[in-house]
Amino acid sequence: MAETAHLNGAYYGPSIPPPSRPSKSSYRPSRGGDCCCCGCLFSLVFKLILTVVITIGLAALIIWLIFRPNRVKFHVTDATLTEFNLTTDSQLRYNLALNFTIRNPNKRIGIYYDRIEARPSFEDVRFDSQMLSTFYQGHKNTTDLSAVFKGQHLVVLDAKKQSELDVQKKAGIYDIDVKLYLRIRLKFGAVKSWRLKPKIECDLKVPISADGKTPGVGFERTKCSLDF
Question: Which residue ranges are recorded for the region named Disordered (predicted)?
Fold first, then answer.
């Protein structure tokens, strides 16, 4: 009878199988790649926009350095007011004539005035509107324009504005604001700009006159402000 082998007390069971690998069908790619692609695309768009902005800015700077544009100067050189009465039925009767000068001080820039609309108002209430002649203004040129506002217009004044009208009527000098709404194009050599829409504001103190003669203090030449 064979002699039975003695074990050292440890139990040796079956071997542990190696860990199984995931099959190719169960593999799912990480989303990190998608995020990376989105970040690259955003960075590319940002750099493209930045390049365009810098290019436009440099072009504008170069144009400014070459042409050195100066603001056009507007003045009202004369104003004649022979009638300015508000009737009991809120009809304003008026007769106002204005002379303007427009000075282009630029050496290399011409200006196309494609549209000029003049709107006079009293206490922020407009009472007329006239279209003035269009023209082209060359370098370092001064142009004269005139406008006549005559007729009657329905205006509604509250108590405060009515009181101000009475005060000015007694003084014989009226605060009349005239705004010019423009559509212009600038000419740089052979190149023309897109249309710009500046607004000119003229705050006038116009004395009332009779038969073209103004008693006392006459009208003073007034500089207008330019607003783009």
Answer: 1-26
Burial of 98 (0-12, 13-18, 19+ CB in 10 A): buried
40 CB-contact burial (10 Å; exposed 0-12 / middle 13-18 / buried 19+):
exposed
Angle, alpha carbons 4-8-13 (nearest 5°): 90
Q: Which residue has the tokens 């705004």?
A: 179
Question: Could you tell me which of 94, 96, 86 has the C-alpha nearest to residue 212?
Answer: 96
Can you read off the two tokens belonging to residue 14? Answer: 């079956």
User: 160 - beta bridge partners?
Assistant: none
- Give the Cα separation of 35 and 186 in Å (integer): 48
3-state secondary structure of 71: coil
Residue keyed to tokens 């001064």:
142
Digit-coded pLDDT (tens) for 169-215: 999 999 999 999 999 999 988 888 889 999 999 999 999 986 545 55
